[in-house]
Design brief:
The complex is a heterodimer. Chain A is 31% helix and 30% strand. Chain A is an alpha+beta fold. In chain A, the strands form 2 sheets. Chain A has a 3-stranded mixed sheet. Chain A has a 3-stranded antiparallel sheet with strand order 4-3-5, with no helix packed on it. Chain A starts with a helix and ends with a helix. In chain B, helix 1 packs parallel to helix 4. Chain B has a 7-stranded parallel sheet, sandwiched between helices. The chains are: A alpha+beta, B alpha/beta.
């Protein structure tokens, strides 16, 4: 159960990003969680909701995209979805597999209120 | 109205940066670093005790022993002859991270270390997310656990380079099937190097010691 640490890292990174880019209030944080990331989406949401009430992200929604494992066979080049964590090529049975997707633990993007920005522009 | 602002940053980018720093420091001095992970009770500390007993005269071994509470493991490793042992008590955290390691690293004389063992907290989930700057992860499993463990914790077995199966002296006293555990592990990670050992009887440990010696020798040659 390290999702609380992960949630804390997300909050810290987003707060830094807000400051760095001088962003208006953030409505949504979109994260990508790979099936191989060892992070449970529900536990992450729980952790996130537990630590955000006293931060500038109190009303910010956490949007989680779960990424299944996608791999490529090093022997024959076949690309395939890894099911049940069996890392073998369905075509040639080789175990020499490169993971293409599924290890993500990323902050993808933020959705911010831009009404304010628009008003500023027209002023 | 809302607007999308692209971030595209790894959540653990701070950890990864620190881990890269650690890796560079260790590489520069030709130190081989192994990160030991397992469930609680698989025998990480026992394996390290045995390894110290066997290799302490040939290799200069540094140890970082992580525990949620107590410095018991670090004390055991000192008693086993460890000259450079530093504990990390995480105080509740279920894993070591690069920040914790970089805090104790300056307390070790890196110029006098060939091989650095980092004993992680007993947990097969959380430590898999945190790079500590190691060369490779060594995952331990014992014959008193289920032989389906690799299937239950695929991320860890996928990221590990080596699997040590401990307590082989107890084979037959449970339903643990040696062929099945290897099959399960290799279905996740075909390249996994596997050792079968008993820290109690010493069986199989010679191959483990030889491999460690070769690892250090290869690293020295690269230097």
């Amino acid at each position: 159960m390290h999702e609380l640490s992960i949630a804390t890292s997300i909050v810290e990174t987003v707060l830094q990003e807000i400051q760095r880019q001088n962003l208006p209030p953030v409505q949504t944080i979109a994260v990508r969680i790979g099936a191989l990331s060892s992070v449970d989406p529900e536990a992450l949401r729980f952790g996130y909701e537990a630590i955000t009430p006293d931060t500038p992200l109190a009303n910010t929604k956490l949007e989680i995209e779960f990424v299944p494992v996608q791999a490529k066979c090093r022997a024959c080049g076949q690309e395939f979805a890894v099911e049940d964590f069996v890392f073998a090529c369905p075509l040639c049975d080789s175990g020499q597999i490169e993971v293409m997707r599924g290890e993500e633990l990323d902050i993808a993007y933020l959705e911010v209120e831009n009404d304010k920005l628009n008003t500023d522009d027209t002023d | 109205m809302s607007e999308k602002i692209s971030v595209e940053k790894k959540v653990l980018s701070e950890n990864d940066k620190l881990a890269a720093d650690i890796r560079a420091q260790l590489k520069q001095r030709g130190i081989v670093a192994l990160n030991f992970v397992s469930s609680p009770g698989s025998g990480k500390t026992s394996l390290l005790e045995k390894t110290l007993g066997a290799l302490n005269n040939e290799l200069r071994i540094g140890l970082i022993a992580g525990d949620v509470q107590t410095e018991n493991d670090a004390n055991r490793l000192k008693a086993a002859g460890g000259k450079m042992v530093r504990p990390i008590v995480t105080g509740g955290a279920c894993h070591l991270d690069a920040k914790m390691v970089s805090r104790v690293l300056p307390e070790l004389d890196l110029d006098k270390i060939d091989l650095l063992f980092i004993e992680n907290v007993g947990n097969l989930v959380c430590p898999s997310s945190y790079d500590l700057g190691e060369d490779m992860k060594v995952v331990l499993i014992s014959t008193t656990e289920g032989d389906d463990k690799p299937l239950k914790y695929p991320a860890m077995f996928r990221r590990a380079a080596v699997m040590v199966i401990n307590k082989i002296d107890l084979l037959g006293s449970s339903d643990f099937d040696m062929n099945r555990v290897k099959e399960n592990a290799r279905s996740i990670n075909a390249d996994l190097k596997i050792f079968e050992v008993s820290c109690r009887t010493g069986q199989g440990l010679e191959a483990w010691y030889n491999w460690l010696n070769e690892l250090v020798a290869t690293q020295k040659k690269v230097q």
